[in-house]
Amino acid sequence: MTLSHPPQHTPATSATLGSLIRGHRLRIGLTQRELADLSTISVRAIRDLEKGKAQRPRTDTVRLIADALRLGPRSRTALEEAARRGQRAGGDVRRLSVERAAPPVPLYPLVGREAETGVVVEELGSGAERLITVVGLSGVGKTRLALEAAARLHEAGLPVLWHSGDGAAAGCLRTEDDLLPRLADGCARFLRGDGDAGDPLPELADVLGAIGGQGSVLVLDGVDTGVLDFGRLSGLLRAFPGLRLLLTGERPWNVPGERLFLLSPLEAPAPAAGHTDAAAVRFFLSQLRRVRPDIVPDERTLADVVWICHRLDGHPAALGAAASWLTVCDLSTLRNIVESDPAPLLDHLAGGPDGSRLQERVGRTLAALPAAYRTLVGDLCRVGDGEFLLQDVVRLTGRTLPECGRLIRDLLVSGVVRSSSDGGRSGFRVLCVVRASAGAAAAV
């Protein structure tokens, strides 16, 4: 076994900080944990220094490590000089990292979100908004929209830090760069107020300082806004005037300065309208080509596709799950199943035993609603196949018009209903996936 302190023919002053720390540590027989305990520095910091991930340690950090290693004057001077070399080189390294700070690569093309993406990009890119929260029902495409917006902002010259939360969809390839994803994750922990998260602001200042006067974008995808600390957000935005935040989640943060962006399902007009180029139809056809490239979208095929898209309310995850069933049935059979009982089709056949778990996630959204809202949704499911007007809510609840307006707005924000103009009037529709989940819950 060979210890990794600097070779004898290499001057100690030319060795890297990490190799010096590791060599001295192994020479006196300390583990990283023991060195951390002796120096009062975290094990993670020791590990990052030895691997070269941390390029700019503080002077106090170097002194504590030197004391713990019991270094003599010559070795201590070499350690301090190695730290200064890393600090001088750190700016260029970080500038290079920032220049390649790009969001993860999406696995699938974007379909039908041109207008929504343009609004998010314009508002964040211009700095008109510094905090945008994209909300919508599970599976509606929040992550894909954020990926597209982040990619366009990056192309416009804005570095992007990306954090994937517990609620993020698995539809992208995340970069393995050491510095930036770790920094984005640290910012997310900071905003959650995690006790052991540490303070990412000095490191964030180092990275953003390399950008000069440019702005930057921090994306927190699939986060639970209910656990985020607004006071820490305020401090973050004050400390970095060029920083903009893009969040995706199932509920708004409801804090001052938040720009709430409601993402509805894709456009799916009634079959009678004959919109074969609607966004939902284009999305379903893209799924169809992946599953059954042998099916030619002729007039009859398009008629079935338009009907299925409308019946499933243009909900992307529902359309993707339904399309997966074309591996075991033809399109006309699929339409018949959707017409009779679409609930079984909401389990994606390519998702293993658990399927896409779409109904389960939608069920959690319904369960989180106040009891009065759940009762109203159940009543609305029995009104015209889920389609209703404001007057229907007034009649069903007996509440005043302003109260009913707020009820509908809350249901729109939660994603369980969407706007509908099929009848030529401004109405609303309880999503098919919600009706299926509500029906399953009632049957238990």
Automatic annotation (TrEMBL):
| Source organism per UniProt | Streptomyces castrisilvae
Cite the HTH cro/C1-type domain residue spans from the record.
Answer: 21-69
Report the PROSITE patterns cross-referenced here: HTH_CROC1
User: Which SUPFAM superfamilies does this chain map to?
Assistant: lambda repressor-like DNA-binding domains (SSF47413), P-loop containing nucleoside triphosphate hydrolases (SSF52540)
The record, for SMART domains, names: HTH_XRE (SM00530)
Name any one Pfam family assigned in the record: HTH_3
**Any coiled-coil ranges, and where?**
none
What protein name is recorded for this chain? Helix-turn-helix domain-containing protein
**CDD domains under this entry?**
HTH_XRE
Q: What is the lineage of its organism?
A: Bacteria, Bacillati, Actinomycetota, Actinomycetes, Kitasatosporales
**Cross-referenced InterPro entries:** Cro/C1-type_HTH (IPR001387), Lambda_DNA-bd_dom_sf (IPR010982), P-loop_NTPase (IPR027417)
